[in-house]
Amino acid sequence: MSPSIPLTPEQDETRQSWNLATAAHNAHKKDQGRWLRQHSSLFPEEVDLLGDIRGQELLHLCCNSGQDTLSLQLHHGARCTGVDLSEVAVAAARQIAGDAETTLPFVHDEVLHFLNHTPARFDVVFGSYGFLPWMHDLRAVTRGIQRVLRPGGRLVVVEFHPMAWSFDADFHLRDPYFAPGTFFSDPVSDYVGAAGGALSPSGHKELETDYVNPHRSHAVQHTVADIVNALISAGMKIERLEEWPWSNGCRLNPSLVERGPEELDRRRFVPPAGLPSIPLMVGVVAQRA
Ligand SMILES: C[S@@+](CC[C@H](N)C(=O)[O-])C[C@H]1O[C@@H](n2cnc3c(N)ncnc32)[C@H](O)[C@@H]1O
Questions:
Q1: 31 is in which domain, residue-wise?
Q2: How far is the C-alpha of 190 from the C-alpha of 268, rounded, in Å?
C-alpha cells in the first residue's frame, strides 16, 4: 500500500477484503479482455443516464477490475480514467485492458484522496453498483466531484437502492433504513460465484473453492435523501432521479428471482411472485453549476 494514500483503519481493512474478493471474482470470469473487445458490460439503465459520452473525459470511481470502464471507452466512446482502492483490482484492470488491446489510466487511490488531489478535470464522473456505500463521508465526496468536474459536467450514478439492504433472506425487515454513523461490517463475499453467471457475461467458471475472507469491509447506508442533499450541498443541480424495481446483475438477497425469460431479464432480479414491488436500484444525474 502506498504510504502516500492515507486510509482510516476501516478503509484499510475494506481494501484487504476487496483484494481477496476481487481475485476470487475474477477467477470465475473467462477471458474478459477478448469478450470486452466485442461486447459492453453495461446495462441499459446506466447507458440511458449517461447519454452521449463520445469524446468526453470520464472518471469512473470504484472501478474494481475495470470491466465497465473498458466498456465505456471501447463501446461508448468516452476517454476513461478508473480509480480503485484495491491494488489487486487495479492490477487486474490493467491486465484486462492489455488483453482488450486498449490503454487507459487505472489509478490505485482512495476516491476522496484522488478527488482532492488530482489536477485532472472531467466531463463526466460515473459510479455504479457498489460505489456509494464505500463513501464514508458522502458530502466531502460530492464536493470533491464538483471540484474535478468541468463547468457543465455531470455526475451519473446507478446504485443498488438503500432500501434493498433492509431485508433478510426471507424478505423480512432486518436492518434499519435509517442508520447514520453506523458501519455495516462484513467480509466481501464471493457473490460472483454465487450469481452463477449473471455477473460473468464473458463466461462463467464454476470453481471448487473453500473461499474464506478474514477481512471485513466497512460500508455505510446513505438514504435517498442523504444522496440528494449531499448533491444539493455541493451546489450541484439534480437533472434526473430514477428508481427501478429490479437489481441488475447481483442477487442482493437469496430470495430474489430472475425477472423473466429474456436474456437481459435473466440477469435482473426481483422479489418472488406474490410480494409487492420495492425499489431495488436508484439512479441520479447531477450537473456541476
Ligand atoms: C462493488 S465494487 C464496484 C464495481 C464496479 N461498479 C465495477 O464497475 O465493476 C466496489 C469497489 O469499490 C472499491 N472501493 C471501496 N472503497 C473505496 C474507496 N474509499 N476508494 C476507492 N475505491 C474503493 C473496492 O476496492 C471495490 O473494487
A1: 9-198+213-288
A2: 18
**Residue 201 CA from chain centroid, whole number:** 16
Q: Is 159 in the pocket of ligand 1 (CB under 6 A)?
A: no
Closest to 193 in 3D by CA, of 40, 31, 33, 26 = 26
* Inside any domain, residue 271: yes
The string of pLDDT tens digits covering residues 78-133 is: 999 999 999 999 999 999 999 999 999 999 999 999 999 999 999 999 999 999 99
Nearest CA, atom 1, ligand 1: 130
DSSP character at residue 179: -
User: Does residue 243 lie in a domain region?
Assistant: yes
Q: Is the CB of 126 under 6 A from ligand 1?
A: no
For residue 207, is it within any domain? no
* 237-274 tens-digit pLDDT: 999 999 999 999 888 888 999 999 999 999 999 999 99
Ligand 1 mean position, distance from CA 127 (Å): 9
Q: How far is the CA of 25 from the centre of ligand 1 (A)?
A: 13
84 within ligand 1 shell (Cβ under 6 A):
yes
